[in-house]
Design goal:
The structure is a homodimer. The first copy, chain A, has about 200 residues and is mostly helical. Chain A has ten helices and no strands. Chain A binds a DNA duplex (30 and 30 nucleotides) through helix 3.
Chain lengths: ~200, ~200
DNA sequence: TTTTGTTTTAAACAGCGTTTAAATTCATTA
DNA sequence: TAATGAATTTAAACGCTGTTTAAAACAAAA
């Protein structure tokens, strides 16, 4: 019994690694069991199926990585500062988990039809608080009136997409992993600048 | 013999549909054969393996969809107009092929290690012509001096990423497929505006 | 000691990608 | 017309996959 929690965790960790590295569909349950150093049948004992294990992992990953982001979106920070913090924290988080974007993208495609029921995925998106803030700042004239949906999609795109095309960027610019990290670091300043610039009132 | 080209094409078309819809790994060769209305063994007769068939399809998709984009990048158009045209054509192309982004993303992840040899993928990226144009316009003071790599990554992100998170956007904003198409249409004006705005000289 | 939860062993199922061998259809060409 | 050779089918096999099952072994708690 003492080992139970431990074993479950070992399966969970091994599967998480493999799912992120190779993708869910290219990872076999026998490979997970082997990396976790446990028996194949134990996978079925703890998680009923591979798909079940995947759901558990996906939910945990989303929860773990989105809590701080949501806290920032819902905070009382002034808009520009909120954007800066959000981008910083998001990019830092993805830098530590560079495979996360591809993983989530593949899930969004793989599970297109059951996205509505996958509650964990909601944490990727804007909160009502933040949406309201954008609209109200627009009304006050502090920023240009902006469609919050477009603005949030812009922000997500500029933050996340570069990680999805990492290998393309490295290959075409002939740079190393380290240099790509530097490139991403630069984006922590650049992206908020683009976003805030675009919000500035015209005329 | 008369049917040969036809049959090869039927396999190719069926596989393309399925790869885009379900992803390569979730599509079985038996399913392809069934949809193409041909025999399983014929798959091996025309394409030696599933991976081979995939390579052929991927190369063809990239070529078909990138030729016009590259032509625009290499044209003599004035920079702002070039950006506008590029974004327009790109978004139109993805609108007609909304699954293409997810497909390419999955390939970038799936085949991380052999990206360098996948020449077709190069067509997704900036050309030297365009890179030079950005640098020179910066020197002339027509635009703000800008890192072309960042600029191109920004542009690709704002164009492509929304398609990758389509289901998320639809779900969270509670909109239909048609309304999402409208949302994308708005981006044809919005994205060039953001990009060109950011290039404007400061002070 | 009995009970309970954990772990293993072993095997089976249908489906997968792949490959093979042989038989067959069929249009063209000799 | 008959022979040639490419196109297509049928049928089967290989090892691998996800999944499930049954039975046994083990450890610790009751």
């Amino acid at each position: 019994m003492a080992k139970s929690r431990n074993t479950e965790q070992k399966i969970f960790d091994a599967a998480t690694e493999l799912f992120l590295e190779k993708g869910v569909d290219r990872t076999s349950v026998r490979e997970i069991a082997s990396r976790a150093g446990i028996n194949l049948a134990l996978m079925n004992y703890y998680f009923r199926s591979k798909e079940n294990l995947f759901d558990a992992i996906f939910t945990a990953l989303m929860k773990k990585n989105s809590e701080e982001l949501i806290r920032i979106l819902n905070s009382d920070l002034e808009l520009n500062e909120k954007i800066r913090q959000y981008v910083h924290v998001y990019i830092d988080m993805l830098s530590e988990n560079p495979l996360l974007v591809s993983f989530v993208m593949s899930i969004l495609h793989r599970s297109r039809e059951r996205i509505t029921e996958m509650k964990a995925i909601n944490s990727l998106y804007a909160t009502d608080q933040f949406t309201r803030q954008i609209i109200e700042e627009g009304k006050k004239g502090n920023i240009r009136r902006t469609d919050p949906t477009h603005f949030f999609v812009d922000m997500l795109s500029l933050i996340a997409f570069p990680f999805a095309i990492k290998m393309l960027v490295m290959d075409k610019n002939n740079i190393t992993e380290k240099e790509f990290q530097g490139f991403i670091l630069e984006r922590k300043e650049r992206v908020p600048e683009i976003l805030i610039d675009n919000l500035r009132p015209r005329r």
